[in-house]
Amino acid sequence: MRKITDIVAPIKHFEEGVMSVEASPPPELSPILRMARHAAVLREQGHDIIDLTLGEPDFNAPEHVLDAARSALDERLGYAPANGLKPLRDAIRQRLEQTKLLEYDDDQVAVGCGAKQIIFNAFTATLKPGDQVVIPAPYWAAYPDMVRLCGAEPVILTTTALEGFRLTPEHLEAALKLATRACWLILNAPGNPSGAIYSSVQLDALAAVLRRFPHVRVLCDDIYASIHYAERPPTTLAAVAPDLSPRILLVDGVSKAYAMTGWRVGWACGPRDLIRAINSVQSNNCTQTSTLSQKAAIAALLGPQQSIAERNAIYRQRRDTALEVLRGCPDIDVLAPEGAFYLLPKIQGIADDQALAMTLLGAGVAVVPGSAFGMPGHLRLSFATDLASLAQGCRRLTTELGRQSWR
Q1: Which residues contact residue 75 at a Cβ distance below 8 angstroms, ignoring those fewer than 6 apart?
Q2: Cα separations (Å) of 381 from 17, 57, 143, 202, 242?
C-alpha cells in the first residue's frame, strides 16, 4: 500500500492540520510545442526527423464538413453570440443525448475557441489565489499551467501503470482530506497521454467519494471520447452519477474526433451559473469563436459519423504496430492505451527523460518527455501519424536505447 505522501504532490508536508504547497514556477511555452518546434527547425535545416510529438490527427476534416464551410463562405459571416450559434448549441445537445443519454437545456451550453479555451475560461471564472485543483498524473501538460495562471495551485495525484493510470477512490479521498482548499477535480478520459478509460463501476466509486466533498467541482475533459478501441464508447461521470451534475462541467470539441484542430471549436455543458460565468469571460476576452468554424462544426455533429469508426480502426492498427516494435526492446515497459492516440512507455534506468528526448531528437525521432505530463522516466509518443513513419520512428527509438549511450 502506497503512502499518501507518495501520491500527493506538490504537497510538501502535512502536520497539525497545516498543509504547505511548493511554490509554482511561472508557466512557460508548452513542452509539447517546444519539442515540436525543435523538430520543425531541424527538418527545415534538412534533417530527417520523424515527429511523434503533436496530438494532431493527420487526417483532414470529413468532406461534408468541408462542403459546409465552402457553402458558408457565400453567407455574411458576422458576429455570433458569445455562447455560440444557436444551431451549434442545439447540435451539441442533440449529440450528447444520442451518445451519452445526457440532456442539457440551451442555457447550459457554452461554446469557445477549442476545448482548451473553454477550460481556461472555466478556471478564470472560478479560481482565486489559494484555491487548489486536483489533477491526476499523468495529465495533459496544459492543466497545471492554466491553474497557475489563475493564481491557484495544482495538486498532483500520481497514478501508476499497475492502476492502469487511473485515479482510485482511496487516493482521491485521501487527497481531498489533505487539500482542504480544493475546488476542482480534473478527470480526463480517455486520458492524454495515458489513453486510460474509466468503467461505469470505477466512476461510480469516485462519485461515492465526491459526494462526501460537496465543495469540489469536477471538470470532465472528454475531448478524446470518440477515439477508443472497445466496441462500446466510454461513459462519463455525469451519466453515471446524475446527482452530481450540478457540479460537473463536461468539455468536448471537434478537434480530435473530426480532425478539426485548426478550426478551434470546443464547448462545455454544465450548471447554469457556471455556464453564465464562462460565457461572461468569453464575451470579454475574444467575443466568440469563428462563425465559419461554428458552421463547419454543426455539419460535423449532425452529418455522417462513419469517419470516426473508420479512423479509429486506423489508429488501432498504428497503436498495435508501435506496441509490437516498442515491446521488442527490453528497456521499455508500455501499456496498450484504451483510447486517444498516445503511447506512454516507461524507460528502464532513465535518469533524465528530457535529456533522453533530446538524444532521440538527434537520432531522428521527436517525442515529448514524460515529465511534461507529471510522469518522469516516461516518454509520450503520438501515433496520429502515418503507419510507415510511426514504425520507423519507434525503430529509431529502440535502436538508440540499445546503444546504451543515454544511460
Answers
A1: none
A2: 41, 13, 19, 27, 35
Cβ proximity of 300 and 260 under 8 Å: yes
CA 327 and chain centroid, separation? 25
CATH topology agreement for domains 13-60+307-402 and 78-302: no
Written as nine digits, the cell of 187 is 478527470
338: enclosing H helix or E strand: none
Letter string b/e over residues 195-227, b meaning 16 or more CB atoms within 10 A of that residue's CB: bbbbeeebbebbbebbeebeebbbbbbbbbbbb
Going by CATH, does the domain composed of 78-302 fall within 3.40.630.30? no
- Residue 169: is it exposed, middle or buried by C-beta count within 10 angstroms (0-12/13-18/19+)? middle
Task: Give CA separation, 149 vs 4, 32, 143, 284, in Å.
Answer: 27, 18, 10, 17
Strand order in the sheet with 8-9: 8-9, 153-158, 132-137, 182-188, 217-221, 248-253, 266-269, 109-112
Start-to-end CA distance of the chain, whole Å, equals 30
Q: Measured between alpha carbons, how far is residue 69 from residues 86, 237, 289 in Å?
A: 17, 33, 15
Is 13-60+307-402 assigned to CATH 3.90.1150.10? Answer: yes
HSE toward the beta carbon, residue 29, CA cutoff 13 A: 7
**Domain ranges, ordered by start, for the chain:** 13-60+307-402, 78-302
CB contact at 8 A, 331 and 181 = no
Q: Do the Cβ atoms of 200 and 166 come closer than 8 Å?
A: no
Residue 105, class by beta-carbon neighbours within 10 Å (0-12 exposed, 13-18 middle, 19+ buried)?
exposed
Q: Please provide the DSSP assignment of 226-252 as one string.
A: T-BSSSSPP--HHHH-GGGGGGEEEEE
> What is the mean pLDDT, run by run of 10 residues, along the chain of 407 residues?
40 32 56 85 92 94 97 93 96 97 97 97 97 97 95 96 96 95 97 97 98 98 97 94 98 98 97 98 94 98 97 98 97 97 95 93 96 96 97 97 70
> Is pTM, for the whole model, over 0.85?
yes
**Could you tell me how many residues make up the chain?**
407
